[in-house]
Amino acid sequence: MGQLKYKMIRTGRLNGQIIPLNLVFIDAKDVTKCGISFKEACEAIAKTQPDPTMMNIIDMDCVTTTSDGLLVEGAIVAMAASDRNRIHPEFGFLEMLEVPYSKELIEEEPHLKQWDRIYPGRRLVMGPKDKLLPIHNAAMTGRACNNNAGTEVWSIITMEELLLPILGQIEIIRDGRILVGKTGEIISVSIGMVVGEEYGRIMPKRAFHVGQTAHRSGEKAKGLKAHIPVITCDKKVLARYIIQALRAGMVPGEDIGPAPSILVISRLLGTRIAMDKIEEAAYEELASVGFTKEWMTEQTEPMTPEEIISLADEILPGGEEYQVLDVKDAVEIFYAEV
Q1: pTM over 0.90
Q2: What is the pLDDT of residues 173-224, one digit of tens each?
Q3: CB 35 within 8 A of CB 2
Q4: Which one, of 290, 256, 248, lies nearest residue 273 by Cα?
Q5: What is the DSSP secondary-structure string of 122-147?
Q6: Three-state DSSP state, 217
Q7: What number of helices (H) and strands (E) belong to the chain?
Q8: Are 189 and 260 in contact (CB under 8 A)?
């Protein structure tokens, strides 16, 4: 018998925010060491947890995208939801799809130019490989729902929800730092600034193109997710990935989504924003949280990438009532018999 290591944030509260399910994060390397499949790993962990639990297996050798088109290191390769020590045999487990490289795909999804320029040869893992649910990329068992390819969870009984952007989960695997708080209005608007992806983790089939908003709700966009707790990365980490994308030639509104944090850093670095390609519905939502067309064209004092990263907590907008925690102070380490 072997021992499978996993990290968990328990149901309850963290920094005053409701954690509706047990949150479990597993390094794919630890699964490989045990010589078992991803599904067997999740089933072994489920046997240790009678309460509603979400599980994500993360492979740090892969890359994936954020919803606004940043290419990042680390990808969720499998996800599960368990309750009362079991995983539903039909709906409780999903593996993710490895997307084959092709020049045609990169032409159709311009944010993937980062693949060649930053991570050549790395495996790109995106949304679920096979799923039975017609709309949501979700795994469900009993009271637990693990949604949006592992980046949003909720209790099916209480409907308490938590957002888990991929960059926060990667920091948990890395033993880095995480931001815990309320989503707030700016991140609520940011969530709508998506790129079109055939195999998207959240919105597949290129439902929207760069420069559009997935919300299309005007002033209401800032309130859609504002009240929901969020666990994400330290803002310095987000700044590094945005700078990396901009240095690789990505243009907000043309290649990557015009999310507020991307726009802030683009303006400070003096890179182009494709204002003519951002639709009016997106401008309306951005303006509702202070990012107007006039703001985008104002002259600003330039900053170096190093200055932006060092001052990211002051510069980057988003999040409310939050605290930045060391991962070691937020998670517990457990082992499952396999």
Answers
A1: yes
A2: 999 999 999 999 999 999 999 999 999 998 888 988 999 999 989 999 999 9
A3: yes
A4: 256
A5: PPEEEEESS-SSSS---EEETTEEEE
A6: coil
A7: 12, 17
A8: yes
